[in-house]
Amino acid sequence: MGRIFSLLDCNNFYVSCERLFNPRLADRPVVVLSNNDGCIIARSNEAKKLGIGMGEPFFRCRRLIEAHRVEVFSSNFPLYGDISRRVMELLGQLEPEVEIYSIDEAFIRLPASSPAKLLINGRNIRDAIGRQVGIPVSIGFGPTKTLAKIANRIAKKETEHEGVFLLPEQGLDDLLATVAVDDVWGIGPRSAARLATRGIHTALALKNADDGWLRRHLGITGLRVAMELRGVSCLPLVSAPPAGKSIASSRSFGRPVTALADLREALSSYVSLAAAKLRHQRQKTGALQIYLADNLFSADHGRQVDGMAVNLTQPTSDTPELISRAAAVLERLYRPGRSYRKVGVVLLDLSPACQAQPSLFQPPLREREELMGALDRINRRWGRDTIHSAANGLAKNWKNKQSRKSPAYTTSWHELPVVV
DNA sequence: TCTGGGGTCCTAGGACCC
DNA sequence: TCTGGGGTCCTAGGACCC
């Protein structure tokens, strides 16, 4: 008996989360902005219809938004993360083989059965999540992950399917002929341009393309996409996520920054965030990379990013130690007079904390680890940043804009919704 | 004036070794 | 005159994803 893949995708996820606690938003055009209130990262169907594009810079569609009184929110990731957890937990109760693929998507693997039974199963999942969490989802079925993705798109776009769609065996090619090649999962703009030079514009044409040519021009990944379109499953379900390999933390500044002191404060804050995440994952880092970026969209000289990585002699998850190492690297990268738009840190070479090899010359400081543990507990209980390193600064005049944020309804005691 | 943030995998090329 | 070949490891950059 074969198996079948299904992709569950939350519709307009961030917008749906905002609507959950704000019924006034139902049926209204709503958008959610990226971290710096920079561009559009989620749109309700009404907003899509107005022609607001995904990833579009906010300032460029501002007039359209004002003209149609579109509701605008800064992103509220603690809220979205919490709602996501509820969706995934419920799905895990309904289906045994689930891979959480992203904040708003999960793959499911099921035994093949009749189309009618699969559709009923899909509708049950959709109804349960709608009823118990309040988030609308779409579900697509297909013989491979890539085909399930395509089925999901159809489930979402063609309303007559009511959110659940199974790719038909008969007439599949006709359907693939209607899917643009850059809508196929794994085909980005670069690959699409390459494929266009060969006259390949649809998923069907990619499916029938020459393997040798694909291997040469799109690499092993491109060939794999074609195989998946042919129904040959190359991408397995990954139910237990492997340990992470890197942790990044960065933000764009609210305005250009030139002073080393400001950069140091911002960097310390991001290092603190990354280190807390590292400890939460029970890992230590063996290397860190710092980078500085100037104007990311300058027409004349393009974007300039200076980065530098250092290896640590001994893996650590100690915030003060990481802050001081990061500050030393920053000082070497910094050029006076340059105006910077972004600074960031990446922790690399992660390893499980329990496997850490103590150094002969510098035994692990038990008290320091306990201190970090206490810090994490306090910040978890009383809110992030209750206690932080003085290096992170207090003025924070580099801090980015987030002027339209909704409350952390479900994750902060201070911001619980009030029923009157 | 104003353009996010956090990830993964693949590949080519250099360093190094025998 | 004539200057090997193959393997491994590491890294930076590219491409893609949500």
Automatic annotation (TrEMBL):
UniProt xrefs under InterPro entries: DNA/RNA_pol_sf (IPR043502), DNA_pol_Y-fam_lit_finger_sf (IPR036775), DNA_pol_Y-fam_little_finger (IPR017961), DNA_polymerase-Y (IPR050116), DUF4113 (IPR025188), Rev_trsase/Diguanyl_cyclase (IPR043128), UmuC (IPR001126)
GO biological process: DNA repair; error-prone translesion synthesis; SOS response
CDD domains documented for this protein: PolY_Pol_V_umuC
A GO term, aspect molecular function: damaged DNA binding
Domain UmuC: 5-188
GO cellular component: cytosol
Superkingdom per UniProt: Bacteria
Family, as annotated: Belongs to the DNA polymerase type-Y family.
Protein name per the record: Y-family DNA polymerase
Species the sequence originates in: Desulfurivibrio alkaliphilus
